[in-house]
Here is the input.
Amino acid sequence: QVQVAESGGGLVRAGGSLRLSCVASRSIFSINYMEWYRQAPGSQRELVASISSGGSTDYAESVKGRFTISRDNVKNTVYLQMNSLKPEDTAVYYCCALLRGANWGQGTQVTVSS
Here is the structure.
């Protein structure tokens, strides 16, 4: 298994940027997919972005062109660069490593003020 820990959340004004980090407890080189989810109050958890071991990426329609997921296999870290943030991006953001099941972090709060 693998443990992951998110960081980088905070309070930002609309139009601003944040970069989230997800550090894994082991090498992510062979982890098929690393993913970012988010969950807003009263809403279901939704997939925001994913990146495969080969570097292929996929994004929710709502964040395409604004968010970028990347991975650094040397640092065992996955990043989510979030630009042009909107109040509707406010949520707890979770990292998930797909390795023999889903391995979740504790989440990091992102709050975007209008």
About this structure: The chain has a mean pLDDT of 96. The two ends are 40 Å apart (CA to CA).
